[in-house]
Amino acid sequence: MKNLLTMKRSRASTPNAAAMFPSILSIPHFILMEILSKLPMTTICNCRCVCSYFRNLISDPQFAQLHLSRSQPSLLLRSYYERESSLCLVESIDPCVVDSGINGDIRVSDKALLKFKPNCDLPIKGLEVLSSCNGIICLYKPRSYDPYVICNPVVDEYVIVPQVEKGSICGSGFGFCSGTNRYKVLRFLSLSVGFGSPGLIKLEAEINTVGTNLWRGVGDAPLYLHLYSGGCFLNGALHWIVHDTENCFESMCCFNFGKEQFQPFPGPSQFRGLRGQLQVDTMKMGVLKDGLSVSHHPGNDMLEIWVMKDYAVQDSWTKDFVIEIPWLDLYPGLLYLPLMVLNNGEIFMVSASVLFSCNMRDGSIRKVRVSRISSVIIGATTYIPSFISLRNAGTGRYP
């Protein structure tokens, strides 16, 4: 032991000790960024607590963009974690963390789980996830849509969007404009333009650029937007299904955040001959395999999932999956949202607060249980985690 101490002292007293035993801090910062950006999210979050140098490095906008370019889709769950309502990130869902559990259910190991611990004053109770982009989440209060909270739980920052009462808010959306690097909240106001007749109603759209106190009108939206079936963000636009007066599929439209305009959007050409038959209450839009998707229930316990391979190209819509779900006809009012496709053939889906998986190889359907999380999911959505800061988005409260 004495010899060991003597050896350590002699090393420390050597003039070239720093050269002989270099610190990790001597590695160029751009190489450290490369290394850190490839680590799991939980590891990166732990690295922020190591020292101020690591914290500043991970907080660098250059690192945030590098990490975002490599970040893979994960699941964001609004559930009960150890009896406490919270947001949880289920990262790296693959065969190494997915095992067969009790009763044949799929069990996701807590190794893939990251619980967000927001500021104690973050008004998260009673809020639901509207949507997200670039790791930035828009939370809202159902029915009242007040408040809107824009947050990034990874970096623990949030902004509250001010409300201006004008009419009855019946829907909302959230997106990002890459041209201006700004996040925007879109809301729909149901306004009467006549007296007493329910037919004389228009859907007015207003937009708020996060960080400002102003809501600006962007014109009237298509009256029969099916606000509950879509509003999914992709390629700088929000997308919806448009229905007719009989609540059947008619077309699609999108809102471009760069132009701040509503535009027609090509739906599956195969749906043209089914007008009057496809009830939009059985349809749900989403993003699957980097493309727009539409899931719907044509009957006979079958669920069809259509995916747009090439954005805005109508002929690229293909029926990728046909899934037999035994209880579909028993609960015809439920919506089924595909969340992600795993490499092992599993499709993770959510419906009626239940997370489940469909195996396209053997046709089996199993519930998905996440360790230490209640089996009842308040909400689930696909989420790409990032270290993007809201500091450039305007005023807000930050740690």
TrEMBL record:
Classification via InterPro entries: F-box-assoc_dom_typ1 (IPR006527), F-box-assoc_interact_dom (IPR017451), F-box-like_dom_sf (IPR036047), F-box_dom (IPR001810), SCF_F-box_component (IPR050796)
Originating species: Rhododendron simsii (Sims's rhododendron)
Superkingdom of this protein's organism: Eukaryota
Ranges of residues in domain F-box: 21-66
Membrane-crossing residue ranges in chain numbering: 335-358, 370-390
Gene3D superfamilies: 1.20.1280.50
The protein's name: F-box domain-containing protein
Pfam families associated with the record: F-box-like (PF12937), FBA_1 (PF07734)
NCBIfam families to which the protein is assigned, alphabetical: F_box_assoc_1 (TIGR01640)
Keywords recorded for this protein, A-Z: Membrane, Transmembrane, Transmembrane helix
